[in-house]
Amino acid sequence: MRLAYFPGCVALDSCRELDIATRLVAEEVGIELVELEDAGCCGAGNLQEYNPEAALALNARTLSMAEDLGLDVLTVCGTCQLYLSRANVALRDPETRERVNRLLARLGRRYGGGVRVKHFLQVLLEDVGPRRLAAHVRRPLGNLPVAAFYGCHLLRAPGAAEDAEDPRAIERLVEVLGGTPVTYSRRTACCGFHVLTVRQDVAVKMSALGLQEARGAGAQALATPCPLCHLVLDAYQHKASRAVGEPLNLPVLHVSQLVGLSFGFDPARLGLRRHLVSVKPFVRALEDTEVVKA
Amino acid sequence: MAGPKAGTVASSTVRPDSPTFWKEVLGLPGGEALATCIQCNTCTSSCPVEALEPEFNIRRLIARIKLGLREDVLSDEALWACARCFACVARCPKHVRPGDIVEAVRHIALGEEREGPGPRHARAFVESIRDGGRIHEARVTLESLRLAGLLREGWLPARMAWRGKAPRLRRRPLKSVPEIRALLDAAEEGA
After folding, report:
1. Nearest CB to B165 within list A14, A192, A236
2. Which residues of A touch B82 (CB under 8 A)?
3. Which phi and psi (to 5°) does residue A5 adopt?
4. Domain locations in chain A as residue ranges
């Protein structure tokens, strides 16, 4: 299986560990990633606010690059998934597509509307499938309680495979990886990332409430499909702890890292050392579980 | 933040200054469904920001637009507290897409070069796309927070750097930046 890989901005910058872990996991399950190296930012809502037409054109450009390769787009970020698939839906309208194609024509590009935008979580569960995924598990997550933190944008992207009010994808994935999912109501809550620089107090409190509830439900780690959620939940967790007046101390894993750990990859290769909240206790507990022979 | 209290439509000091403001918003991407709002409050009840910051009340924002309180809406710093979670868009029974209305109103505010942390962040973000094709996190963060904001982060930047987690200081522009810039310019011209 080949996919046009759109890592987005953050997975190549402060969350490089996500890009690294995704490439390792993709290779292991036989997905060939053709990186869209020259694709621009999805706009993340900011460009959409500043100039909606420019945002639509920039995303149409990205989609056209994948179309030229004859591949669907793979994202690893909730926000990339939302804004690329929103653009894709808008571009289904022939009139809109024609208008945007007039802009793209200046670059010698054209988008015909024939590309799908998929997040890695969806690809793992639907295209690779539980059976093939499970066949790669060398270190089942066992009794380690892992909770999901979905992030808004993955759930609310047009065409999302999940019920936004009651998603099951990450919990299903944890089960496939031989683990025990923990559920709690704020697993679909907002991390606050998009107001982090404007209203940090609000963003930190929002993420704190989610972390606190997950911890209370017994989670020993969170798994998130979005690097922006990861930044707030991990890097700002000390502030979240202060906001709720208790130490939260909950490691946060990218979905790709969780899969990689269960595949038996060396934690150092998955970039776990880059996290601000130590993942060591979780990894140590995982290393105590029995390794399944290939 | 000054302004009318949550739950009310307008304080006595706020006067309508643009009776056609709603038409202005209606004509923008995101604002198309504004007129169908029935003020049921599903949006505000779903809003995780309002739960912590009642000054950002999305139902009330729509009411203020319809009442023509243009300056009141555009100068309100709470406009920039929306976290774009789109819970309101998903749940609105009239498909008004309240979160997209926020996008349209912010578009007007940015066009008027309004000041404040929100517009500053949006502009820094867009400038960074123009400059590098993808955003340069370090630059966007610094320009959004400014030095004072960065100092308020305390040891966080140092801890991130220690972990190898800090965003890159050097920009890494895409090869296709001139192409991207040309596309953004063309879209802005409305060509």
Report:
1. A14
2. 194-195
3. -85, 120
4. 2-120, 129-287
CA distances, A127 to each of A61, A118, A132, B118, B149 (Å): 25, 10, 10, 40, 44
Please give chain A's pLDDT, 294 residues, in tens: 999 999 999 999 999 999 999 999 999 999 999 999 999 999 999 999 999 999 999 999 999 999 999 999 999 999 999 999 999 999 999 999 999 999 999 999 999 999 999 999 999 999 999 999 999 999 999 989 999 999 999 999 998 878 999 999 999 999 999 999 999 999 999 999 999 999 999 999 999 999 999 999 999 999 999 999 999 999 999 999 999 999 999 999 999 999 999 999 999 999 999 999 999 999 999 988 777 755
Q: Which CATH number fits domain A2-120: 3.10.580.10, 3.30.70.270, 1.10.510.10, 1.20.1050.140?
A: 1.20.1050.140
Distances (CA, A) of A216 to A219, A244, B69: 7, 13, 44
In B, which residues are within 8 Å of A39 by CB distance? Answer: 174
Tally the domains of chain B: 2
- Whether A14 and B160 lie within 8 Å, measured CB to CB: yes
How far is residue A7's CA from residue A279's CA, in Å, rounded to a whole number? 23
